[in-house]
Amino acid sequence: MDAPPYHLIYTSTAVERLSQSDLVELLKISRRNNEASGLTGMLLYRDGMYLQFLEGRRSDIAGLLERLQNDPRHCGMHVLRESNLPARLFPEWTMAFKNLAGLRNASVPGYSELLQGHYVNYGSKGPAQMLVEMFQEMLIAS
After folding, report:
1. Exposure class string for 97-135: b at 16+ Cβ within 10 A, else e
2. How far, in whole angstroms, is CA 113 from its chain's centroid?
3. Torsions phi, psi of 65, nearest 5?
4. In the chain, where are the structural domains located?
5. Which residues have CB under 8 Å from 138's CB, separation 6+?
6. pTM reported for the whole predicted model
């Protein structure tokens, strides 16, 4: 029997702010790598700040986290939450994203203006909307 999916949410700060083309390139690479590792999730970006939700096997997430901690393109990584899940929240998204600073290209795979989903424990708000709200609260507090 497979272990339940594991999830981790972290935040970090970009060393240099990303242009829209830089962000799209980062997402292409992330999707390719996540698909190869069986990871799914969502990335939020605004004003040089990231919030990422990852889900999959714990060992795969640990390996990615180690690589991310050594990535010189960002700093100040802080894990906000991690635990097992009863089921994946973003099973079809190797890396959904939303640039909260204005990337408005619906033709980019994974991009969503609405980022609505449904997961029974979240009531009427989907998990993506919950992450967006968490991220916006962090931005206001910083």
Report:
1. bbbbeebeeeebebbeeebebebeeeeeebbbebbbebb
2. 15
3. -60, -40
4. 6-141
5. 11, 49, 51
6. 0.76
Please state the φ and ψ torsions of residue 95, each to the nearest 5 degrees: -170, 90
Locate 80 and state its tokens: 């906000």
Fold of the CATH domain 6-141: Alpha-Beta Plaits (3.30.70)
The pLDDT value given to residue 89: 86
- Of 40, 46, 39, the closest CA to residue 12 belongs to 46
Average pLDDT over residues 34-40: 92
Q: What is the DSSP letter of 117?
A: -
Phi, psi of 113 (to 5 degrees): -75, -35
Q: What is the pLDDT of residue 100?
A: 59
